[in-house]
Amino acid sequence: MNIPTVDLTDLSSKDPARVERGAAAIREAFGVFGLVYVKNHGVDAQALERFYDAFRTFVSWPAEAKRPYGRADIWYQRGWTPPNTEVAVAGNGQPDFKECYFAAPYPSDESSALEFPQIYPENVWPPDAPPFFQEGLLSLGRSLHEAGLGLLRGAAVALGLPETSFADLCQRGPHVTRALQYLPLTSSQVNTGIVWGEEHTDFNLLTLLPGGRFLDPQEQPARSPDDKSGLYLRTRPTPEDPKGRMVRGTAPAGCIVAQVGQQLEILTGGTFLATPHVITAPGVPGWQRQSAAHFMHVHTNTVLFPLSKFRTPDAVRNYAPPVLAGTYDIKTLVDIGLAPSSALDQLGYRHYDRLNQMRAGGTKS
Ligand SMILES: [Fe+2]
Questions:
Q1: Which Pfam families does the UniProt record give (predicted)?
Q2: Which residue, of 57, 248, 298, 320, is most buried by count of CB atoms within 10 Å of its CB?
Q3: Separation of CA 38 and ligand 1 centre (Å)
Q4: How confident is the model at residue 210 (pLDDT cuts 50, 70, 90)?
Q5: For residues 273 and 262, what is the distance between their CA atoms, to the nearest angstrom?
Q6: CA-based nearest residue to 326, from 203, 198, 190, 156
């Protein structure tokens, strides 16, 4: 099971043979595995370490100090996600053992924020944040985003689409960068089937993962304590393996990982596949893991439906009905426990009260 590696400098080259080499790697990687390794990605490894140090300091603050940045009113889309908040849809309700911090690396545009206020809120920062916390997360997000745009151009070429097809849909989208810290298990929790991140597929277009690091029980960066923990992905089912196969998703040294999300699967009618993935915990207590992810989204006003090239009867059946990406975002955020279910009641026409008032003679119009 060889997950291909794509060289971003191939995709940006003027040489058609190099572009095709990169596109071919993406075609196989996204089509078979839903994931590609990326080299020459432009992410600064030293800055990433510095950021993880800053994030570790923030996580170590007492819960009361972090609480003002855990914002249920904006569905936790900026700032701190407390532990035991988010759940995976397939996880039987088991909350993930993690705390996270979300920031948008680019300013939101005002008209989109008016339409979807909780999806495009302003960033939230503690005034006394550890040095390099804000700058580190924002610059990481921007470099991952640039790498992602290169990959999306390659993905479009790989499918015979105009080069900017996916990148155009991303313009002014609700892209968000997240720092994650997976929390230590106690000795009675290890080896009981508890995972750090329950199996799921990402609901956005493309996710970029710059690679993480373990913290030992003294909270010092260290190599993995065993070979049990880390990112595993499930491959596409085959007649021999109807459940697919669980494959380790550890990138080769110096590479980052890019994963297909549900939006890219829908737009390509399943030609590219959203990767089911799970973050397993180590078999020893007291260890943590830090990681980061940048989630690229199509703009909230994009209709999620297979592009015409992929609109076969099967694809239409599988991905119907067409749905606005912003609505899809809200539905998913409810499903994973970040938005209240009342958010769904507020979709579309909601002026029944006004009609009742009018019928009762309470309004003039
Ligand atoms: Fe994920």
A1: DIOX_N (PF14226)
A2: 298
A3: 17
A4: very high
A5: 8
A6: 203
Q: Separation of 131 CA from ligand 1 center, angstroms?
A: 27
pTM over 0.90: yes
What is the 352 CA–ligand 1 centroid distance (Å)? 38
Q: Are 283 and 190 in contact (CB under 8 A)?
A: yes
Residue 85 has which token pair?
Answer: 């908040």
Residue 281 alpha carbon to ligand 1 centre in Å: 15
The domain tally of the chain equals 1
364 within some domain: no
Residue 173 included in any domain: yes
**Cα–ligand 1 centroid distance for 260 (angstroms):** 10
- Looking only at Cα atoms, what is the longest distance across the chain? 73
Distance 284 CA to ligand 1 centre (A): 23
Question: Would you place residue 2 in the very low, low, confident or very high pLDDT band (cuts 50, 70, 90)?
Answer: confident
pLDDT, one tens digit per residue, over 150-208 is 999 999 999 999 999 999 999 999 999 999 999 999 998 888 888 888 889 999 999 99
Give the contacts of 191 (CB within 8 A, at least 6 positions apart). 283
Tell me how far the alpha carbon of residue 289 lies from the centroid of ligand 1, in angstroms: 15
pLDDT of residue 363: 60
The CATH number of the domain where 52 resides is what?
Answer: 2.60.120.330
Residue 365 lies in a domain: no
Residue 227: inside a domain: yes
Ion ligand 1 residue ranges (Cβ < 5 Å): 202
Domain hosting residue 317, numbered range: 5-359
Q: At 364, which helix (H) or strand (E)? A: none
The stretch 104-132 carries a mean pLDDT of 96
Query: In 3D, which of 98, 118, 100, 95 has the Cα closest to residue 108?
Result: 118
pLDDT the model gives residue 194 = 83
209 CA → ligand 1 middle, Å:
9
| CA atoms of 71 and 67, how far apart (whole Å) | 8
